[in-house]
Each structure stands twice: as structure tokens, then as C-alpha cells.
Request: fold
Amino acid sequence: MTRTPFGIEDVLADRAVEDTLLEVPLETKVFRVVFGMSVAIVLAVVFQILNLAVNEHERYAARAEANVSDIRVEPAPRGIIRDRFGNALVSNVPSWSAVLVPRDLPADSDARNATFARIAELLGEDSAALEARIAAKDWSVSDRLVLSDSLTQEALLALSTESIPGVRAERSFERVHADPFAYAHLVGYTGRVGSADLADNPSLHPESVIGRAGIEAAYDEFLRGKEGRTVTFWNARGEEQGDAQYEAPLAGAEVRTFIDGEFQEFVYERFTRALRELGRVSGAVVALDPRSGEVKSLVSIPSFESTNVARYLSASHDPLFNRVFQGAYNPGSTIKPLVGTAALTEGVVTPETSIYSAGFIEIPNPYDPSRPSRFLDNAAHGWVNIRSALARSSNIYFYEVAGGFEDQLGIGIEKLKQWWERFGLGRTTGIDLPGERAGFLPDPEWKENARGEPWRVGDTYNVAIGQGDLLVTPLGLLNYVASIANGGTLWKPRVARSVVEGNAVRFTNEPEVLADISGIIAGALPEIREGMRDVARKDYGTARSLSELPFPVAAKTGTAQVEGNTKLNAFFVGYAPADEPELAILVLVEDAKEGSLNTVPVARDIFLWYYNERIKNAPLIP
Reply:
């Protein structure tokens, strides 16, 4: 290719053109834009510097330290969890962990595979599964992987005597439960932190163990303690620099609870046996002191082994689900004491008002007058007043006082919802355990928005007997019944009593009143309480077998039809002694065979045990 020569004439020609051009000055706004952009860039840089120095300091400092050091974490013993008598529900025993450090693994792939195979053999794990765990690990947050928290003696001996590159045996602690099934939903369980935990709390170490459920999670800040650390620094050539730094671990604080351990184990055993005999698998029991909100027992079935949670993650009937305060159920007839209290207080009825139950009532059908809507009672009870209606659990009585019928006025859904809310339904109780649900209170506006249908009197009838769209948690249901027992105070349920570190009390869980409606319902309570007494002492009472107990009981049973009326959930709520209540309990059997008949024997045995062991022969509480 021939290059065209570029001579001086060309340069001069270009210069001649430039000499003919005029220079135009830049406008002021250009300088303003440039200045504004410069200021924005400077501010962004300053902001990022401050963010890294303050907000992200701990995270990046930990990452930087990990890049130039070998950090060995010495777990701190988690705090002991005790029952109300000082007995340990959860404690610690020393154990050994197997820790994988990938940088120490053989470089040769065959040797590395042989190492993986040997590690898997020692841990009793499939080699492919082990490699999958290693591959799934987020190595950006830690350059170590804890393979096992509880090495067997055989594995520990092998790691101590064999030269297995990349694996270390390190001291640890294993959580030991007094009964891993009976206390599972109360105590909860622990687990290693994940990337989300580290993002939320940069002070955590990638190998920290934190509470995941129950008391372990609710009081993790106190129970966790502070891990010990041995830090060895090295330079870019991998040479150790100076002496290792050592920080001793600090044990976690002790959580003392209101739980009665012996009572809890009895309740769990008795309820488990009852479900087994019925051929049923799901239910819940909760017991509290109506005078203060102290939770004495909390059982959800099916339970799980709190020391081996992984095997229950996909188990049937969801064992990890705490039915006591995470389940939402139609309460059935256990809502009737509340409806009766509202009816008496609003003046819809008096204690002397009697309503006739022929076994059903019919209301006109606006769409087909020839086919009126029929609402059934559980039997034809004849004339009933508030007390006998509670004892017999007459549906007709509560249909009419809630929604009205012929000459009988009703409370109406708007006021009925106000009364649900007064008794704490539709919101959480605030129990000091994580994951509580609030239940659901329907009303006309909700139905119109959700279903495009108007609220009808039949809807009011249904919710008046605890059916329809009304949903409550067992704990919320029991808390309202406890307020009837104590005269109108809704206490916040409490599991933990205090947190103690050494001789110092770091936290005291003081009693807390959620609502005091004693002045509002004082006039209605005597009749409601007597009606609940009649449930357990009259021949026609739905829990009449409780009359055989050596102390008076007030109660209410309930059965809710669910899943298109194909199944029954059975409830029992009650308190004792009826004249001076010390214990309020709830028993729930899901998919019951014979409705409330399935719950009363369990309630009877729970009351009897508590009376004999804790009222007649009360042990001293330290």
C-alpha cells in the first residue's frame, strides 16, 4: 500500500482554517452544572467513607482480620434455662466439634477426595453429601465449616491420632434437654448463624450459635454469652507474626422461668397418651395462673426432638408449628361466655330472661322464601336462661342474643366485635416467645371487600357460637377465659421470670396488664361464672364428670366444625378452684372423634394432678 506523503503545506492549510474560526465563551450554567456534579461526587465519596468507617466497620474489620489471621473460636457455654423450682430444663455438657479448614486440604485432587471419604466415614455421613455441604457453604463469610458439634469418641480419637489434613477437633458444648420432646416448643432450639444473621448483627461470628425458637430465641441475647477467640496472625508469605491473641469465653446468663417442670412433663405425657388412644396426632394444652399471667405449662403435639431438628423439617403434621399461639382456630362454644357477658352488660338480656330452644330456628331466605335458612341447636333444650344455656351449650340462646330473633333483640355484629376486642381477641397477647399470631375478627366491611357479599344475620349467628370466619389462637382464647376467672384483668402471659448473671439480676419480667375491664363486666360476671360452674356440676352440664373432683371447677367445652364440616376440633377451657382460681387451662384436640368428650378426661386429670401436687402439697418456690 502506498502512503500519501503528509507535508508542511497540509499543516499550514489546516492552520489557515483555524485562524478563520471565532472562540465562543462557555455559558455560566455550564460551570454551575460542573460545580454541582463535583460537589455531589465529593459528598458521595465522603458519605461512603463515613459509612465504611462507622456502619460497616465491624463487618469489614472482621473480614480483614480473617484474611490475615487464623481465628479459632472457643464456644461460650449458653446460659442454663431453669423452671420455677430451679430445676434445669436445658444445660450444657462439654463436647468436641469437627472443623474443616479448606486451605489446609491437600492440593492433589485424589488426596483431597480420599480425605473427604475418611472424614465422611468418621462422621457416619455419605461422602457425596459431605461434599455437597462443603459446596453449599458461603465461604465469603467464613473460611471454616463446622462439620459436627458432637463427635463420637471413636471419631475424636481418630482425629487426634491420624494426620487428616484440613480437619481439626475443637472443644465445644452440647445443649442437653431435660426432656427433648416435652419442652421442645417451650425451650426451642439453637443453630449456627447464616449470612442473613451476620448482616443483621455484625457482632456475631460466622461460627456463633444462636437461638432459633422458643426461649432460646426470645432470650438469646442473654443466653448466648461471648465466645472466646485465639487469633494467630501471619504475613503475605504465610509466616506467623508474633504471639497468638487469646480472649477467654464468657458464659451466658441464666434464664429462670415460671414453668413447672414436673407439671409440664405430666401434661405432655397425659396428653400424648390421650391422643394415641384416640388415634389422633395433633393438639395443644396450655396452663397459666389467671392471677398474674404466669405460664406454667405449654404443650403442642406433635412435638419434635429439640436436639435433632433437621429430621422434622419435612415431617407430617408440622411438628415445628406451635399450635398454642401460632395456630388460628374457630373457638366453637368456648366463645359463649364472652357473648353472654356482652349480652348481659349491654342489657340485651337479664339473668331471668329465658329463650326457648326447639332444636332449631328458621329465618326468611330473601332469595327463596319457600326455603328459609335453618340454624340448629345441639339438642332441643326447651326454656333456657344464661346459666343453663352455658351449661347445656345451647346454640339457640346465643344465636338470638347475638343476632336477634323475632321479639328478642340482639347485640349485633358491630358491638360484638367491640366485645371480642375488649377481651383481647384479634391481637397478640405479647407472650415472651417468638412467632405469635393474632387470630381474625370478621365484620361486615371485611366481608363486603373480601367476598363482595353483605353481612347477614346468619353470619352473626355463626360467629356467636364460635363458627364462621372467627379465628382465635388457643392462647388468646385461654387468656380471655382467665380474665373471667380473675374478675376482668387481661394479663400479658409470661414464660420467663428473670435473667440472672452471677449474683446480678439483669432482667425481671414484671407483670403487665393488657386491659382491665373489671368495672365494665362486674355486673355480668356472677351469672357467667355460675353458668360455667354448672357446666361442671349439673347433670346436664357438658363437662359433668368434673363434678367428681374434690374441688369446684368452672369450665366451658366447645366443638368447631372445620374443613367443610368433615372434621371436628374439640376444645376445653376452665379454671380451678372455681371460688379462688389458681390455674386456668385449655385443651385442644384436632380432628376429634367425639367432640368435647375427648378433651374433658385430659382436663380432669390435669386439674387433679395440680390440686394434689401444687395446691394441697405446695412445694416451696425459691
